[in-house]
Amino acid sequence: MVKKPKPPPALLSRALLPPRFAAWFAQRGWEPRTHQMALLEKAQQGESALLIAPTGAGKTLAGFLPSLIDLEQPRNRSGLHTLYISPLKALAVDVARNLETPVQEMGLPVKIETRTGDTSAAKRMRQRRHPPDILLTTPEQLALLLATADAQPLFSTLRRIVLDELHAMVTSKRGDLLALGLARLRAIAPAMTAVGLSATVRDPDELRRYLVDQNGANPLAGLVTTPAGAQADIQMLDTRERLPWSGHSALHAMREIYAAIKASRMTLVFVNTRAQAEAIFQQLWTINDDNLAIALHHGSLDAGQRRKVEAAMSAGQLKAVVCTSTLDLGIDWGDVDLVINVGAPKGASRIAQRIGRANHRLDEPSRALLVPANRFEVLECRAAIDAAKAGEQDTPPRRIGSLDVLCQHILGMACSEPFQADALYQEVRSAEPYSDLPRKDFDDALDFVATGGYALKTYDRFAKIKQTKDGLWRVANPKVAQSYRMNVGTIVESDMLKVRLVRGRAQQRAVPAASAPSGSGGLWYPTRLQGEQTRAAYTGPLMRGGRVLGEIEEYFLETLAPGDTFLFGGEILALQGIVENEALVARARSDTPKVPSYAGGKFPLSTWLAQRVRQMLSNPRSWKTLPSQVGEWLKLQQHFSMLPPASDLLVETFPRGERYFMVAYPFEGRLAHQTLGMLLTRRMERLSLRPMGFVANDYAIAIWSLGDVGEQLASGKLALSTLFNEDMLGDDLEEWLQESALMKRTFRNCAVVAGLIERRAPGREKTGRQVTISTDLVYDVLRRHQPDHILLRAAREDALTGLLDLSRLAGMLSRIQGRIVHKRLDHVSPLAVPVMLEIGREPIYGEAQEQVLKEAADDLIREAMS
Amino acid sequence: MNMQARIRTETTAHIAVADVRLLADPGGVLVHETERLLVVADLHFEKGSAFASRRQLLPPYDTAATLARLTRLIMRHDPKTVIALGDSFHDVRAGERISSADREALKALMQRRQWIWIAGNHDPALPQDIGGEMLETLRVGALTFRHEPQAGAALGEIAGHLHPAARVTSPSGSVRRRCFVGDGTRCVMPAFGAYAGGLNIRDRAFAPLFGDAAPTAHVLGQSRVYAVGWSACGHD
């Protein structure tokens, strides 16, 4: 057989591009890119496709080109032609703006509109009846549109759907909701094709399946990739300072970071948590002798403030932005030529995407500097650089669709029009995350939506959806639909409190802001503060009415007492008190805020990087690529104890103070380690080892006890295989789950998403605080009376991968069976120092809750006796 | 620590109200030992089904859960008289929704005991055929039992209604629990119902009850009631 040679792109584009488009490309001096033409070819063959390309490759134009060409032709009837879904509403707005350029320059008769939470009610209503040709929106808005009676007429004309940043959407419950929406769209508009735009991922086939009907003849969408751009230039900061043993703020490296910012055009400084962002921003400003325009950007800041920073970025007015994952995605905000990542990279794909934020021209390498904040992070940074060079990806594996999202979707579908259960089940199974959904789970979800799904069938008369005589399910009354619309979505925010600036009792004058460089607005500069003393807590009545600075997680504020100072929005603030859903704060006169310590990072270390770190540790020849301080530290560990073998678990025991310590090095991430700590301490309690508490970081866990674990192990009274036996995931886990606050938080999310708890009800806004109280109580009752209830099952599934990371813990326990090495030491080992230093910084678990009450009660006794 | 050990280590504390010593059980009830009187506040039976009637389908097991806990405490203290301090039923139609099993369980509990329902704002009237006696207030010696605490001084008052909870902060962390709150002259009891939430005792609703002397929070622990000073109780 003779292979037909592929025509060169220029020929291909002449064949596919209409004259008007070819002229436009020529006029701009562009040649259509190979992937743009390949995607167009797929579209014209009526095939769905996934495009994997780095930022800056003209991905968006590639996604829309087939639609624009289609829309150039006169149409029989007007109607919605293309739907674009983005994870960020700002991105949707930005893409709409960029799309106007080719449309206007070619004079195409195409109407483009966005629809987000900010779109006016009148416009939204009009869009439903008289839609634009191209509508750009978010997964939540799509769910809302699909739940209206207009869904059928609105979407029947749909030809294409473009899913942007697909790799980011599919990893969460939003991805489940979107997949279900996609299934419904396919049912309404069978001729529709889907296009996914994605960054590089570990397994493209997962995304290719996501795009198409899993019941269909071809359950795999086409694939278009671009050749890799220039290899990124990634360095690790080889600090001249002493490398810290622990902590995440990298304060030692501040001058070096500052110098790098100064030497570049524009720098993005990525960190993992808001608290880190605040601390680093503050530190950079204390040494900002050149008054460089350095701004701060994180999700808790007031939206207006964030928009200002973004505008200043694209206008090229900024020298650097310290930011969290809020800038990981999407919008091209100016001419970034350096990305600095402070702290642990946590995952190879994550770091690759962050680095991709620099230098959007494909032919030049992106420049990145990794700044480890402590010695373990040096290993992690080295592993990440090696992984990036090898082009390895560690995006999370595919999700199994959540049952709580399914519940929400079923109610939404009933709000749209009455449905047949069998037909909806088939439709749901066409969505990739639900392709294996058992019928029983679907029926349970349906039962939950109707009457709560309780074995005690007492709520029939209160049913939300009811079956008609002909077997169709429909909403019981319009109020149910109204309540659905107010509660749609899968993102359950942590309970957030508004941060409002008030004046303290002393009525001190506002502290003057630092002198900002002229002409740059100054809003993003921190307030420089003078003076030493921290203002005493204000104890009088709290006065409201100041400016709102942003929002902050309630659980964070719970760790503070009135008068405590913390960093927020680049200022040192003193908590005055909490009134309803607002935290009232005053500016504080202090140079040293009580910086809270939950800065460990919310992203767990990826299994992939953990593997590389373990291999590096166990192989001394690889240490020559590490800073000399780290090499020496590892040599010391080799001398005093041993290095954790690549596939075995090292456990060290040693006495310290009045306690006996056990330190283990599983490298499975903090969440899995915390769960392990809870389970191990329970087990040790039963073995009368009298554990007192534990701390965990991403690499290791330290448990201290009154009983001498080392002696028991050495004398053979206790075996490590007993202590670390997989059976801890049985009864111990069950018992602990009953009380676990994390499990309650997971359950709360499921209850909100599934619609058991309404976040918002007509006429009254329920604050998150009230939701928390009632779901904890509901959890306790439901667990005792119907432990197999669908929401408990959903919460358990979430816990497997979420806050408890049970799946990783289970994997580790099975991996290390028979492979545990014990080292009994006289004192703490070099490798144990970092986790030991977390003691007193990180919250301590175990019997601590009762301990809090006991201490408070003891204080009272002392007070009474004195 | 297993359950066996927990029960054995269980201890009880005492709270004085107008010089009467009352036993405070960590389960959230007060016991007048000499009068053999047990007091429980804010049972909120059928709160779940009340939500369900507005189509928020909370699990319908709250009444059973509340009754089971109350039964254990009544077995433990074997009182002659039980006083339910109001808001025992979440609403006046609770009697129509309560399951027959729960109704029977409640009846069994009430047998051979004097049972007094103090009227609450949620339950100004009793469900039909529920039994027991309904009163606005009850005096027993120096003590006065009523649902809603009165503003200003009220020597000997034992009330519910406010659902007190304390956020206790110590160097090891912070915990929020239901509590009794009292200053020796009066006491507000924690809500007992499975779905009854808590109101922080730092809330202004508590301010009119206690004069200059700061009250003490008697916080419900796993197996003990902890007396915690006002200054150790924080805002939420």
Short description, anyone?
The complex is a heterodimer of chains A (about 850) and B (about 240). Chain A is α/β, with parallel strands linked by helices and about 850 residues long. Chain A is about 40% helix and about 15% strand.
Largest interface: A-B, 52 and 46 residues
- The CATH architecture classification of the domain at 33-225 in chain A is 3-Layer(aba) Sandwich
* CA(first)-CA(last) distance of chain A: 99 Å
The CATH homology group name of the domain at 33-225 in chain A: P-loop containing nucleotide triphosphate hydrolases
Q: Write down the CATH topology of chain B.
A: Purple Acid Phosphatase, chain A, domain 2
CATH class descriptor of the domain at 33-225 in chain A? Alpha Beta
Number of domain modules of chain B? 1
| Alpha carbon gyration radius of chain A | 29 Å
Q: Tell me the Rg of chain B in angstroms.
A: 17 Å
- The proportion of residues in beta strands of chain A is 15-25%
Which secondary-structure class do the elements of chain A indicate? alpha/beta
